[in-house]
Fold this protein.
Amino acid sequence: MIGRLLGQLVAAVRPGELDVIVVANGCTDDTAEVAAAFGPPVRVVSIPVASKRAALAAGDEAATDFPRMYVDADVELGAEDVRALGDALRRPGTLAAGPRRVLALAGRPWLVRWYYDVWLRLPEVRGGLFGRGVIGLSEVGHARVAGLPPLLADDLAASLLFGPDERVIVPDARVVIHPPRTAGDLLRRRVRATMGVSQVEQAHADQAQGAPDATARTRPADLLAIIGWDPRMALRVAVFMTMAVLARLGARRAVRRRDYSTWHRDESSRG
């Protein structure tokens, strides 16, 4: 995964243009070695803790400039996309930015494709920074996100901290996202997402410092509107709702225990 990302990211980089920091957080594979083999502008920071929050903190400690892009290892992003995000973040008033999504759905089963056909049409999904695997922050935006409490859905929480006039989706930047390859892996991913939304809501209810005061739960009115725009979407909406109910049931026990550490990782999209 990391080789696929870095190969595109550094292929057309001008000298001194980017400082790419790869944080290997408790990795037991060859991530650090593969990343280090690229040489400048890639730097590798290794930490013993298998924690995304610890990885973000380590990357921030090593970084020196703004704006900053936080990129998941399993997406595809090019240097031109980073340039477009950086240009947007240098505009006055823009605190956070994300690229447009391109989902690699070829070869996925119909159930996975139908789920994402609906998901991509949801208003919160179209305008939110979450679910992209990439978030760019200006220095002011970074200061706001730095106050977030530890949350499983860190990208959702970060997105909710910025109003529509403070965040932007940059059409000239794109990220290729690799969805789950099986319905079971899709369900695992949705269980994790449901847990993350519940944790964000609980953090707000507990008045945790820095917690966002909203969530991005899907509203029935949004689903009805999708069918209203295109009645052929009705069966796809039914699949989406079924997956959402199963994910909520799967997350219920963990949410009751406030167990937000179990990751429910989707391995199929990481191949």
In short: The longest helix spans residues 234-257.
